[in-house]
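Section 3.1: Structural characterization of target chains.
Under the original work plan, the team committed to producing a structural model for every single-chain target entering the pipeline before any wet-lab resources were allocated. The record below documents one such target. The sequence was received from the expression subgroup and is listed exactly as submitted; it comprises 327 residues.
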Amino acid sequence: MTRITRRAMLGASAALAAPATLRAQPRAIRWGDLLPATHPQVRMIDRIAHELREKTAGRLELQSFPGGQLGSGRDMMEAVSTGALQLTTDGAGALSAFLPALSVVEAPYLWRDAAHMAKVTATPVFARLNGELVARRGMRMLGVTYYGKRHLTSSAAKPVRSVADLAGFRLRVPPVDVFRAMVEAWGGRPTPINFNELYLALAQGAVDGQENPLPTIHAAKLFEVQKHLVLTGHIITPRMPIVNEAFWRSLAAPDRDAFEAAIASAAQWQDAELARQESELVATLKGAGMEVIEVDVAAFRDPVLAKVPAQFAERWGRGTFDALAAL
């Protein structure tokens, strides 16, 4: 007769329990971002993480890495493409380094407002671009979020009151050729600098000014190193949550559904929060010591529309800019 000892019973129980314990470990997912932790775009990620943890009973643990901890925007998009990073958020212009035609979604003076921009996700243009991004670079856009209306800022020595004041002006832009073309149409000197190096570049006078939405100017404390806020409203900027396609397909269908629902819910909150901040931040930045300059927007718009859409027509597809503008 075989005698079963207490030690053997405990050992068998541990062996049976081990796989269940392993299965209970949450799957860690990393989402990198350039913006500081206080920005609504990063807070959106935190909201997604909370909802995802609840909806998947802790199976998925989303971790946020703001402030450029994982490198430049280009670094993080490269990492998503290779699968070294699961998600990041960036603009269509920046993403056009991987799929050039995407830059049309962030073209200057294209969108009337955030609601107009949001219509792009339902167009065949967006579906085609997303399919090409998946096929060529192994990345997928999970939607379009609102990043804000972009305005100029300038140093104390370089107030901008008209487009003529931009002649020879060293304006920091993202490393995106459509942005460079826009500044050249104004007569300025576009100077590409990574966002995580921007504050120091402004503080040291390496550039005369920069352009970004109000919530970004505020969250990055650019008012500390810039004197003038120039309300040009030249681009209504989309941002795209970008996911590695192989990771996305590795998720079980219910978890993927939960992820999509969490992104949709948090993005809706983020868009509303950014709009709320934009309605208040002109006064806030003025209170922080910036001079607010209202300009003739048409005088800034006309030279850009006269040159940029035609310059990129082959890349975007002839008629694409006009078709999106007419949505």
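The chain has a mean pLDDT of 94.
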